[in-house]
Amino acid sequence: MSSLLTESDLIHEAEVVWLENLEGLDYVRQALDKTRRRNTKPPYARDGRMVGYALLNEDASPDPDSGLYKRRVFFLLPHDRDSLPDGLYREGAPGEAVDPRTIVPGKPGAKTSRSQSSTVAVASSAP
Fold it and tell me: Do 38 and 105 form a contact (C-beta atoms < 8 A)?
């Protein structure tokens, strides 16, 4: 499914569950996956690792054709910046990557200077 999400894709999100500490992650990839359940940890079939997922509220209905729920999953691949800081994404980030600190239920998340570059600007308190 498309990883370029809109709020209308996420209207039934109730909670985001993180499986890892976000402090060391400049970005996470996000995608909508189809799952059998709306409120348990979804299966994960990609390379890399799942770092979080969304739980859906009771108003969420499965797709009438497949019987599956569309849920957001957050993940990282083996070549992402957290594993290979000097690799492909030393600067920049994949198209579906967003700063995990901007993610809340029902909102797609945002690209920030932190997610787009490996260097984080630190405010100076110089006189």
Answer: no
Residues 118/90, Cβ–Cβ less than 8 Å: yes
| Identity of the amino acid at 115 | S
Q: Which two tokens stand for residue 36?
A: 């059998």
pLDDT single digits (tens) 49-100: 999 999 999 999 999 999 999 999 999 999 999 998 888 898 889 999 999 9
Structure pTM? 0.87
